[in-house]
């Protein structure tokens, strides 16, 4: 049998330069330089090193001064493992490898000299596989910057890893694995401690306040100085409230952070008819007191209470609104109510017909009297008199049925679905294990996304107006004033005008009472609704009993039919609302939403800046091979000069840097006195934790 000594072989050194191979007599200025040299040699050859032993000067008792050190291959020695190879976490076993380098301190020359070198290994070495050893797996600065940016943008770690792999031609060319990407996110971009997570959120608020003094935040604590609620509003959101304060949607959502805290959003409609943010809040509980604190701080921030607010059927919200916003009209979200129809009434045999009739009565009743009559007939026809859910809805009909809100302006909002859309945006990036720091950074993303979309819409409207072929004079009038999205909404009413017919007219003093029949399709059959329009021929002012203009701010098809009947070319200016105008200068469009730049350290920011400058240079000279060769040569020359400079400076600065620890600025004041929130329980039945719970649910 061949002995271990005879099996040691010299690995292939053809890819190494002569000065990169350790030899006896080689000297180094310090012990770390010797360690670095042998580690680089091992990495290029294909094995891993370890410090076998270090001897210290025993004559110096006041300080430990090393005098020699032995650096070995990690597969040195021999040991038997009780764990099977298939289940062993570290499968690299010892093979009595004798490869090593022994260095000792030369006191006269004040340097470290190699005294013993063994280059032969008892195992094959692979330079291609060495990058997959966990000792050599390392994230480059470029990878760290990409991971940080992608994590902030909500891109999953596996997608980030694939993108980095595609840059270098495959994952085999990377010096790290997907697990390293996830570990970096967990250790550097997440807070494992609840109090540290809360302090990170507080530091974010302080930094945003420093960037823009108009940034508002308020933290409420209980008697034990424990977090109870938080509200924050960006400076741009505060400025936009001046123009969109007529109606607000408020809604909560759960399971978007590891603390289980419900978060709520204040959402309104901008001049393009799209959702705009007016503030966010985190609550510990859904009790009346929690909502009162949030509403009180929000009113303190914006200054003026909204005219109307839309919420779901939450009794705690209703109680808080009655106390804090007594003059604000509040209504229930009709979408939440109608969504429950299938669960509450799905067991009835004629559910399809029942649901269609209920939707028709709720959404298409021309008047409150008509709703009362048709609802009574609906209850009688389907024998629903004993249904307590419907009885409760009817008792509170003035809080959710659209016909009872036709006289107030609601900007087209009748549900909290705009808040739901904001929560859906969060849902793509946050989950039940997300921390508060990650949450507020995603808030930055939401603001930036909404700001960019509003800017794009403003740019489209500023390009000028192209008259539509076949458009009426009234259409061209609104096209000159309204934003593109709101003009399209008006065009829908113009198209619906073809379904309207003027049936009769009656002179009543200075005005004319006109009956307009509108045809609608219900259950596959045409249904006609009659609306009365009051028209003044002198002032050309009109009023329809459907109150669409009063509630939405858009002329209804019935008034447009009357204008067409009496050949009115332009409507009075009172029907062109500044709320939807593209010609109004709004202050918030000149305010940029705050963005936190303190998540990356100064080194990463400098690295990104240098990369950006290089990209700008490379894109100008990459088309020509000769120019690209000059650029590559300049980079190679700069790299060699920087390497020489580092080598010359390392010996003088090494002693001073060995005993210093890197520090990092927190970027704000950490409030140690306030304790982070505990995990809270939300409403409803808790989700099952059994492995088969989801499967049982699907089968059921």
From TrEMBL:
Basic and acidic residues bias (residue ranges): 691-700
Region called Disordered, residue ranges: 669-700
Superkingdom as given in the UniProt entry: Eukaryota
One MF term in the entry's GO annotations: zinc ion binding
A Pfam family that the UniProt record links to this protein: MULE
Domain SWIM-type stretches: 529-567
Alphabetical UniProt keywords: Metal-binding, Zinc, Zinc-finger
InterPro entries registered for this protein in UniProt: FAR1_DNA_bnd_dom (IPR004330), MULE_transposase_dom (IPR018289), Znf_PMZ (IPR006564), Znf_SWIM (IPR007527)
Ranges annotated as biased composition (Basic residues): 680-690
Protein name: SWIM-type domain-containing protein
Species per Swiss-Prot/TrEMBL record: Arachis hypogaea (Peanut)
């Amino acid at each position: 049998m061949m002995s271990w000594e005879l099996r040691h072989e010299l690995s292939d050194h053809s890819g190494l330069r002569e000065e990169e191979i350790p030899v006896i007599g080689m000297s180094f200025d310090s012990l770390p330089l010797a360690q670095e040299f042998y580690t680089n040699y091992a990495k290029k050859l294909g094995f891993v090193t370890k410090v076998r032993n270090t001897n210290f000067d025993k004559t110096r008792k006041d300080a430990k001064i090393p005098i020699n050190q032995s650096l070995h291959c990690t597969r040195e020695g021999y040991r038997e493992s009780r764990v099977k190879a298939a289940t062993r976490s570290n499968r690299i076993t010892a093979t009595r490898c004798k490869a090593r380098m022994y260095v000792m301190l030369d006191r006269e020359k004040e340097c470290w000299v190699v005294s013993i070198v063994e280059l032969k290994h008892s195992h094959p070495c692979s330079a291609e596989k060495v990058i997959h050893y966990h000792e050599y797996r390392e994230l480059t600065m470029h990878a760290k910057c990409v991971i940080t940016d992608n994590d902030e943008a909500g891109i999953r770690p596996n997608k980030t890893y694939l993108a980095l792999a595609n840059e270098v031609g495959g994952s085999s060319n990377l010096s790290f694995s997907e697990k390293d990407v996830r570990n970096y996110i967990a250790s550097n971009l997440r807070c494992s401690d609840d109090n540290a997570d809360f302090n990170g959120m507080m530091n974010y608020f302080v930094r945003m306040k420093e960037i823009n003094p108009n940034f508002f935040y308020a933290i409420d604590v209980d008697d034990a100085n424990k977090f109870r609620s938080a509200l924050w509003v960006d400076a741009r959101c505060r400025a936009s409230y001046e123009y969109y304060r007529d109606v607000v949607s408020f809604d909560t959502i759960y399971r978007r952070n590891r603390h289980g805290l419900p978060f709520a959003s204040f959402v309104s409609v901008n001049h393009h008819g799209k959702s705009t943010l007016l503030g966010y809040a985190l609550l510990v509980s859904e009790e009346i007191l929690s909502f009162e604190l949030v509403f009180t701080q929000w009113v303190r921030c914006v200054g003026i209470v909204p005219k109307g607010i839309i919420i779901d059927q939450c009794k705690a919200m209703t109680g808080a609104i009655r106390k804090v916003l007594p003059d604000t009209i509040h209504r229930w979200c009709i979408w939440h109510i109608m969504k429950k129809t299938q669960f509450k009434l799905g067991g009835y045999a004629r559910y399809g017909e029942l649901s269609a009739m209920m939707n028709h009565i709720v959404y298409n009743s021309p008047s409150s009297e008509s709703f009362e009559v048709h609802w009574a007939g609906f209850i009688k026809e389907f024998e629903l008199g004993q249904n307590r859910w419907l009885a409760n809805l009817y008792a509170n009909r003035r809080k959710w049925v659209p016909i009872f809100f036709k006289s107030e302006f609601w900007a087209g909002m009748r549900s909290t679905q705009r808040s739901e859309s904001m929560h859906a945006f969060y849902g793509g990036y946050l989950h039940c294990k997300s921390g508060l720091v990650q949450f507020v950074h995603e808030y930055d993303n939401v603001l930036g996304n909404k700001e960019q979309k509003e800017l794009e819409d403003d740019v489209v409207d500023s390009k000028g107006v192209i008259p539509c072929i076949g458009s009426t004079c009234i259409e061209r009038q609104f096209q000159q004033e309204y934003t593109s999205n709101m003009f399209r909404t008006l065009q829908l009413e113009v198209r619906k005008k073809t379904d309207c017919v003027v049936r009769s007219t009656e002179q009543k003093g200075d005005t004319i009472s006109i009956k307009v029949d509108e045809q609608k399709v219900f259950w596959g059959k045409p249904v006609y609704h009659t609306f009365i329009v009051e028209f003044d021929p002198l002032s050309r002012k009109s009023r329809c009993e459907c109150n669409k203009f009063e509630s939405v701010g858009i002329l209804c098809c019935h008034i447009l039919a009357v204008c067409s009947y009496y050949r009115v070319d332009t409507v009075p200016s009172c029907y062109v609302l500044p709320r939807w105008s593209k010609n109004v200068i709004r202050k918030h469009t000149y305010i940029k939403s705050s963005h936190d730049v303190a998540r990356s350290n100064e080194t990463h920011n400098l690295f990104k800046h240098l990369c950006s400058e290089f990209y700008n240079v490379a894109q100008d000279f990459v088309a020509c091979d000769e120019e690209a060769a000059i650029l590559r040569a300049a980079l190679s020359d700069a790299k060699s000069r920087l390497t020489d400079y580092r080598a010359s400076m390392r010996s003088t600065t090494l002693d001073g840097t060995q005993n210093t620890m890197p520090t990092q600025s927190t970027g704000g004041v950490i409030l140690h006195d306030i304790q982070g929130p505990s995990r809270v329980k939300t409403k409803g039945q808790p989700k099952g934790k059994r492995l088969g719970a989801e499967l049982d649910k699907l089968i059921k």
